[in-house]
Amino acid sequence: METSYGFRNVAAGDKQPLVNEVFHRVAKRYDLMNDLMSGGLHRLWKDGMVSWLNPPRQSGWHSLDVAGGTGDVAFRIVEASGRQARVTVLDINGSMLDVGRQRADKQGLAANVDFVEANAEALPFPDESFDAYTIAFGIRNVPRIDVALAEAYRVLKTGGRLLCLEFSEVDMPFLDKVYEAWSFKAIPPIGKAVTGDGEPYAYLVESIAKFPNQQNFAGMIGKAGFERVSFRNYSGGIAALHSGWKL
Ligand SMILES: C[S@@+](CC[C@H](N)C(=O)[O-])C[C@H]1O[C@@H](n2cnc3c(N)ncnc32)[C@H](O)[C@@H]1O
């Protein structure tokens, strides 16, 4: 079985170690690079995600942020709940989680957020554990997306919601050309200038181009069992936010 690693095909078992190496290499500069690569837009997209989630201002509500990296989405959810929600940040990469833990301490959010090193394809939680499952810019890095979606469905309570933010297909003429030039010509050199290494950023850009478009990804979410699947585009489809419910 093969899967894509950027524009290359690799044996399914080889993708995850390659992805892990990318995020070990970029972890310390990850947040800075996110701002540079997206011109700060990732902040607005994440804000949009959390406002669509609309976490209740009540304690006892618990969400899981998978591929949560340095904690960006988790921290927003906790703040939006008036510091009532509990969020578990799960990531396969200890280097990304280390940065997340430091940020949680600095922001005084450590009591609301816990960090778990594990794989999205094999979540170490019982069935029906969470009220919501979020994943931002993570799912395209997971080798078996269908397995990750099945796990999302399993750990959600009935009535729980999946929200997935991911780069997607640009649906505006002209913007698609500008975006392509920016992605392939600008991002790897910026990555090299900032981190001393352009290769991880070439992978990130290629993996975006290989990810299914909005409709196809919505179909995958439905196939995993989610209902009322819908999506909204951000910035002309550069990113898309998918929603599905376990009913
Ligand atoms: C682009 S970062 C996104 C981080 C964060 N969600 C954000 O939006 O800033 C992708 C994250 O996916 C994680 N990841 C990749 N494969 C994973 C897997 N199989 N299970 C869990 N996390 C994974 C990486 O370690 C990395 O932290």
General description of the model:
The protein has 247 residues and is of the alpha/beta class. It is 46% helix and 23% strand. The chain has helices at residues 12-26, 30-38, 41-53, 72-80, 94-106, 145-155, 175-195, 199-210, 214-223, and strands spanning 2-5, 8-11, 62-66, 86-91, 113-117, 130-136, 156-167, 227-234, 239-245. A seven-stranded mixed β-sheet has the order 5-4-3-6-7-9-8, sandwiched between helices. Strands 1-2 form a two-stranded antiparallel ribbon. Strand 6, helix 6 (145-155) and strand 7 form a beta-alpha-beta unit. Helix 1 packs across helix 8 (199-210), helix 3 crosses helix 4 and helix 7 (175-195) packs antiparallel against helix 8. The longest helix has 21 residues, at 175-195. It is globular. The two termini are 33 Å apart. The model has no long low-confidence stretch (mean pLDDT 94). Bound molecules: S-adenosylmethionine.
